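User: Could you walk me through two proteins back to back? I'd like the raw sequence and the structure tokens for each, with a short line separating them so I can tell where one ends and the next begins.

Assistant: Of course. Protein one, sequence then structure:
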Amino acid sequence: MVRARAGEGSVPGARSDPYRLALAIEGGGSRGTYSSGMAVELERRGLVQVFDDVYGSSMGAITGAWLLSGKAEHGSSFWWHPEVLPNVIRPRAALRRKPVVDLEFLMNEVYQQWAGLDFAGVLADPVRLHPVATDADTGKAADLAPHLSDAESLKLALRGSAGLPLLAGPLVSLGGRRLLDGGLTEAIPFHTALRHGCTHVLVLRTRRADERAQSPARVEDLAVRAFLRRTAPATLGAWRTRPERRRADDERLAGGGPLAQVLVPPGAPEVSRLAVDPALLRRAFDLGTAAMATALDIGR
């Protein structure tokens, strides 16, 4: 479908087919360098307008915003900029009771002031962005697209979608909802796309093809559970069942049909969600672009 739409110059609102094609971008903190590379390859080939919607969870929502701004390749370069991630991801900040992951700095200083992300342009694109977050008071996935009206609401939505429990500071509120990381409920946001009537979904993954879902380390598990009990008890069930749901998602995506995925190749380096090493992140980005290129060229 991607090839057919690209071949005929199909654009949103003027399709010759009856389908609704979504792009879904997995979250994962710094692992998002992999899917960022995949998205950049789509941009390089002029394929963004073949999609009708872009769904992103956590860092995947931020990658989706850059893609719809028309400057995904420019935005990706800030992954390995020496002044960016070390000032966004600051483990020692916990000692001062400050956010370990400073998403407000990322949005307002890095993306708006330094990088010039065109938030208004993202909202004006006919391909609609759907940042997926977790509603802290219901424990369910929340599509924030209906709440996007201007640059400020988009920045809040992206911060809410990427709001890692315990690490990102106070919860963001938007549209009367308190928000947590979309990865709690829908790390791979194809479920929301299907519920919204998308007939086909291309999923950009941040996990390796040979990587199995693992339970969190005991220390992390206990700390996050304590945080959620105090802050968002309705989300405890989502936290407990994440590994099982991720394994179920892996099986479903492997089944093909209307779902296709681009995976990080086996043997690719491990990238933690809080990684800041510029060389590692650039390597992950390059492997992501190569994986997307391979997927697009298969069968030509």
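----
Protein two, same layout:
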Amino acid sequence: MEALKQKIIDEGKVLSDTVLKVDSFVNHQMDPVLMKQIGEEFAERFKGMGITKVLTIESSGIGPALMTALEMGVPMIFARKRKSLTLTDGLITATVRSFTKQETNEITISRDFITEGDNVLIIDDFLAVGQAALGLIEIVKQAGANPVGVGIVIEKSFQDGHRTVKETGVKLESLAKIASLENGKVQFVNEGDQQ
């Protein structure tokens, strides 16, 4: 997605060979025009799959997931990383380790919102080692629903996440694939390259 790649070039900050900071337009401050375009792109890439729900993890995935759900005309659910006083019964949980934050969270959703037979599209901001995607796929399966797709805003293709998610058999679509962050420079995967 060219608009996203250009935004990464213009505003992204390479913090190390493995960390890209995009907090000016994705995961702290959000660019609403870009989020709308991201939602439209995901809706196009996953159309015709009978998607009934969109699922993400709080908080950085909420913007792109909500815009995707809006385009598809379906509800969006986000898995919580923190315990809620109002979310106590009928929980589905999975354990997820964040590569960027180097912390482990137990993520939860209520069984009321994803049910047997739902076709669920998972959306997240980054794909690094794939733990968030795997945790969300696990939650969908625990609910008796079908994980039919994983949509990623920015994939760090030089890490294991792509392979990890592909091995689940769930369709994976990434809008910007980064080949390298070495020497402080973003290098994108060439469109013709196979993964």
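Strands lie at 13-14, 20-21, 53-57, 76-79, 91-98, 103-110, 119-127, 146-156, 171-180, 187-188.

Let me know if you want the two compared in more detail.
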